[in-house]
Amino acid sequence: MRVLVGYNGSDAARAAVKLAGQLATSLDAHVQVMISMEGGPRETPDDIARAQAHLTEARRLMADDGIPCEVFQSARGMAPGEDLVDYARENDVDMIAVGVEKRSRTQKILLGSTAQYIILKAPCPVLTVK
Predict the structure, then answer these.
(1) Helices assigned H by DSSP within 1-130
(2) How many structural domains comprise the chain?
(3) What CATH number does residue 123 fall under?
(4) Residue 112 has what pLDDT?
(5) Pairwise CA distance, residues 82 & 80, whole Å
């Protein structure tokens, strides 16, 4: 089984990593942790460094529980939800785990919802954690 975790460093994303680790132990799953950035001129060196720090944190969270995982950053010019869904489709991922944070209706309208996009478009089951 292959589990893909969308990670952004938030508390909800940390909870998703921890739960994916528990699944990996009980289901003998391979976990991949992914940070998706759109890339291009809007991404600053500080943004990239922050993403790398988040990936290091995710790797440490998994290592603390003795669970091997693969971590990587993607910058394919897509919104994070699209990127995760496309990656899952292209790589036969069996489950996507994402953290969800409570947002107001206005925030959802203005900013969209990465988790909502993943839930609706993913080619596999989606596990949400808050």
Answers:
(1) 11-27, 45-64, 80-90, 105-111, 114-121
(2) 1
(3) 3.40.50.620
(4) 55
(5) 6
Phi, psi of 26 (to 5 degrees): -80, -25
Q: How many CA atoms lie within 13 A of 125 on its CB side?
A: 6
Domain coverage including residue 7: 2-129
Of residues 123 and 61, more confidence is placed in: 123
Q: Give the residue carrying structure tokens 């489709």.
A: 89
- Taking Cα atoms as reference points, which of 54, 92, 94 lies closest to residue 74? 54
Average pLDDT score over residue span 92-114: 75
Radius of gyration for the chain, computed over Cα atoms and rounded to the nearest angstrom: 14
Give the model confidence (pLDDT) of 33-61 as tens digits: 999 988 877 788 898 999 999 999 999 98
